[in-house]
Structures are given as structure tokens and as C-alpha cells.
Design brief:
Elements: H1 19-30, H2 34-54, H3 73-80, H4 82-115, H5 119-134, H6 137-148, H7 153-160, H8 168-171, H9 173-198, H10 202-210, H11 215-226, H12 228-243, H13 247-252, H14 264-274, H15 278-304
Helix pairs in contact: 3-15, 4-9, 4-12, 5-9, 9-12, 10-11, 12-15, 14-15
């Protein structure tokens, strides 16, 4: 079979670069990110690797000279310990109440209301909500401790309304710290949803209104499906942040009374630094990291789903 003649005026076909040339080009293009990769390896991958190793040892802070490899003993001990199971349950309650339900719902409600409010109302509301977010965690925790304590402002308001008051930090500590986390972290959700709602075309909402859809029907059938990805992103970030909350709870209740507000970060701190069980505390931290990874995997799966 004769070779097909090239059209007149056409030059020779460019030769395809060899594999070695392509590899060299890829390496050259990757040089700018090499310093970032080195820093990540040193300050992120390195500590995580040490934590994984220590989770399988009996390392202590009690002055013992030898650190022995104990395999899965720390994990078996954790799942058999009543304190660990209690901390897991309280962590789930705290995360669902304050992040999945509280911050997410309140942030969406504020963003939707501010969208239809006047400019002055938006400015005042945004300033008040964001002020709680930018406060340092310890400062916010002391303010909320003063609000929820027996002689605090919450009980004063309830007494003025002739409603029963109680010592919130003693009777319902996990609810008190959950409400505190909602107050402090709602601003982030509000900003996420304000940006998402700003991208929703007005024409679609007006068309739904012409078809007879009410406000709730528009929100449920039109607005929420359009901002589905923003909802998934917000839920993922809020959940990961809430799983690691330590200073807020420690300042308000120190995990008490007893262990009734002791989430996994506080349980890990107690075991590692108060009981000097570094290996066991690191195993708990590793399990908390796995829980965060599972939540992230679920949310990323939702984000990949097409609307």
C-alpha cells in the first residue's frame, strides 16, 4: 500500500517527544512546588508519622526510659474503656448539635433573612455575628461562661420572664457548650451561604413565584438544590472544626462536671498529659483523625454528586 501523499504546502509532521523528554519537562514544571512539598513533609507528614508510631507504643511521661511496641493494645484498651466510649458519644452529640444543626441551620437562616433585609439591618447583623467569630477562643469562652453560669445573664433573663432557671453548666453542660459553639461559629456559615445565595439567579426564583410557589417551597425546591455544593462544603468544614474544639469546652467546663462534657480532644489531653499516657493519648488522637477523615470522605462524596 502506497504512503498517502501529504498536501502541498504542508510541512513535516512534528516528532513526538520521547518519554525521557516528557519526564524531564514534568520535573522542571514541578520545581516551583518543591519547597512547599518539603515543608509539608517536615511539618505535617513528619508529625503525623510520629503520632502513628507512638500510638502503637506504651510511651509515658513518667520518666520511664524504655518505650515498648505494644501493637493494638492501646486501641483495645480504648474501646473497652467507659470514659472513651462516653467521650465518643459526647463528641457526636456536640458535633451534631453545634455544627450540623446549629451553625449550619442558623447560618443559612441569617443569610436568607439578610438577603431581603435593608442595608442598615445587614450591616448591624453582620457586625454582631462576625464579632463573635473573630474573638479569641479563650475570650469567647469566658464570656459564655459568664452567660451560662448560675448567676449569669441567661438565668437573669429567664427570671425576668418568670421562667424556671437552672445551673446550665452543671445540669446540661454538653448543651451549654454546644450553644456556645453555635454562637461563636455561626458567622462562618452565614458568610458561606451569603455568597452562595448571591449567585442564585433572581429569574429562577421569580419564575417559581409566578408558578405559585411560596417562600418555603422556593427555598426547598429551588434555592437549596442550587446551593447544594455550598451546603456540603460548609458542613464538611464546620464538622472538622467542631471535632477538634478544645479551648472553648476546657475553659467553660474542663470536661465536667465529672465527664459529662468531656469530648475526645479533652479525653485525649487528660490521658496524655494528666495521666502521662502519651502512647494511649496518641492512639485516641489517631482515632479522632480517622473519624474526621470518614466525615470528609462522606462530604466529598456528596460534593461529587451532580445536582
Amino acid at each position: 500500500m502506497s504512503r498517502q501523499a501529504q498536501p502541498k504546502g504542508a510541512g513535516p509532521r512534528p516528532s513526538r517527544p520521547s518519554r525521557a523528554t516528557r519526564t524531564r519537562r514534568t520535573l522542571v514544571r514541578g520545581l516551583p512546588v518543591l519547597p512547599a512539598l518539603v515543608l509539608l513533609a517536615l511539618f505535617l507528614a513528619g508529625p503525623i508519622g510520629y503520632c502513628v508510631y507512638y500510638a502503637f507504643t506504651d510511651m509515658r511521661l513518667s520518666g520511664a526510659s524504655a518505650t515498648n511496641f505494644v501493637g493494638l493494645d492501646n486501641f483495645r484498651h480504648a474501646f473497652a474503656a467507659e470514659g472513651f466510649l462516653n467521650a465518643v458519644w459526647l463528641t457526636l452529640v456536640f458535633t451534631v448539635l453545634s455544627a450540623v444543626v446549629g451553625q449550619n441551620t442558623l447560618g443559612l437562616a441569617l443569610a436568607a433573612l439578610m438577603r431581603h433585609a435593608s442595608k442598615a439591618v445587614r450591616a448591624v447583623t453582620g457586625t454582631l455575628v462576625i464579632a463573635a467569630w473573630v474573638l479569641p477562643e479563650v475570650v469567647a469562652a469566658y464570656l459564655l461562661y459568664a452567660f451560662f453560669r448560675k448567676e449569669g445573664e441567661l438565668n437573669a433573663i429567664l427570671d425576668a420572664l418568670r421562667l424556671p432557671s437552672q445551673n446550665w453548666l452543671y445540669t446540661l453542660p454538653i448543651l451549654a457548650v454546644s450553644m456556645a459553639n453555635v454562637w461563636r461559629g455561626t458567622a462562618f456559615s452565614m458568610l458561606i451561604y451569603s455568597a452562595a445565595l448571591g449567585e442564585v439567579p433572581r429569574e429562577i426564583e421569580e419564575a417559581a413565584e409566578v408558578d405559585g410557589a411560596g417562600r418555603w417551597q422556593q427555598l426547598w425546591h429551588v434555592t437549596l438544590p442550587l446551593i447544594r455544593r455550598s451546603i456540603g462544603t460548609n458542613l464538611m468544614l464546620n464538622t472538622l472544626q467542631t471535632l477538634s474544639v478544645f479551648g472553648l469546652i476546657y475553659t467553660m467546663t474542663r470536661g465536667g462536671p465529672g465527664d459529662r462534657s468531656q469530648t475526645l480532644p479533652l479525653y485525649m489531653y487528660e490521658q496524655a498529659f494528666k495521666n502521662s499516657l502519651i502512647g494511649y493519648g496518641t492512639a485516641v488522637a489517631l482515632m479522632l483523625l480517622v473519624v474526621g477523615g470518614l466525615f470528609s470522605a462522606v462530604y466529598m462524596r456528596l460534593l461529587r454528586t451532580e445536582v
